[in-house]
Amino acid sequence: MDIVVFGAGSLGSLLGGVLAREHDVTLVGRDPHVSAVRDAGLRVEGAFEATTTPDATTDGTDLSGDVALVTVKAFDTAEAASALATGDFDAVCSLQNGMGNEETLADALDCEILAGTATCGAIRQAPGVVECTGRGEIVVGAADGGDSPIAESLAAAFDAVGFDCEAVADMPRRLWAKLAVNAGINAVTALARVDNGALLSGDANDLARAAARETARVARARDVSLSNREAVARVEAVAEGTATNTSSMRQDVEAERRTEVDAINGYVVDAACEARRELDLDVPVNRTLTSLLRAWEDGAGVRES
Ligand SMILES: NC(=O)C1=CN([C@@H]2O[C@H](COP(=O)(O)OP(=O)(O)OC[C@H]3O[C@@H](n4cnc5c(N)ncnc54)[C@H](OP(=O)(O)O)[C@@H]3O)[C@@H](O)[C@H]2O)C=CC1
Ligand SMILES: CC(C)(CO)C(=O)C(=O)O
């Protein structure tokens, strides 16, 4: 397959580096990472081991391929979509966390929009080097649900290089289930500065479960079938499966970067407000986590108004 990975940070470099074992991959990223990949290839360490030589560029315009994977942070999706719109793809697939990315891509692009979720753990350690801290699972499918031959081909492309990837027909529900996982894990691990596994017990466990239950309630208010029990079970299964991971939001806070809180806990708060008039829906845990993260972003000077 001919694959563009737009956003060669932690996740994008892991996926692109491993996909380049078998496929034609172009990474879109920034220097000095892009120059390092061009000079010496991309080294993947940890749960995957590979050194590959994908193409790499800092210019994401006028590219083409079978599929473009979007792996920028949620607040960069609009810019990625504008750049991808100058190119030519059969499909563009968001593998980001948070909600709203697929709508942003669909507004800008003419091709098929796929959605995906990834529970891999990735940390870019140095220019040209990414560590995989957990292989996790990848799920892809049509963003609006239903069967998609190109999603099937993409899943096969991931499988061929060693990822555990499935194409599914119920992506909208899967995105809510992943939102519950991220609402439960990301903010709590970022604020408490703990690995994902710390959420399996104690106060952190109570918080993560409560954030996930609130997310499931909001999902049901939107006619998405996600029970509290499933949301909590998914949070705990991912926390256990990625116990030694530094979540992407904790990585952001530790590096003093803007977080994706608006697209995760903040999205749950906004969606609850929309549904609230009819259903008296309150989400105090997600509201508190969102406010704390936004206060931290303001204090660190990384939040854009
Ligand atoms: N890391 C992980 O383990 C996991 C991450 N995710 C999700 O995947 C997404 C990506 O996360 P992650 O990889 O950690 O994030 P990173 O910030 O490490 O990667 C995103 C990269 O995209 C680059 N970028 C953004 N806009 C452009 C542009 N216009 N042109 C070129 N490069 C651009 C950024 O550069 P710069 O920083 O200079 O702007 C950055 O290097 C997020 O939604 C995250 O929640 C999901 C599962 C696991
Ligand atoms: C699955 C999980 C929680 C893995 O750390 C993740 O998606 C993230 O870190 O953003």
UniProtKB/TrEMBL annotation:
Q: Where is the Ketopantoate reductase C-terminal domain?
A: 173-295
Q: What molecular function terms (GO) are annotated for this protein? A: 2-dehydropantoate 2-reductase activity
Identify the keywords attached in UniProt to this record, alphabetized: Coenzyme A biosynthesis, NADP, Oxidoreductase
Query: According to its UniProt record, which reaction does this protein catalyse?
Result: (R)-pantoate + NAD(+) = 2-dehydropantoate + NADH + H(+); (R)-pantoate + NADP(+) = 2-dehydropantoate + NADPH + H(+)
The EC category is: oxidoreductase
EC numbers listed for it are 1.1.1.169
User: What family does this belong to?
Assistant: Belongs to the ketopantoate reductase family.
Purpose of the protein: Catalyzes the NADPH-dependent reduction of ketopantoate into pantoic acid.
UniProt protein name: 2-dehydropantoate 2-reductase
Q: Which organism is it from?
A: Halorubellus litoreus
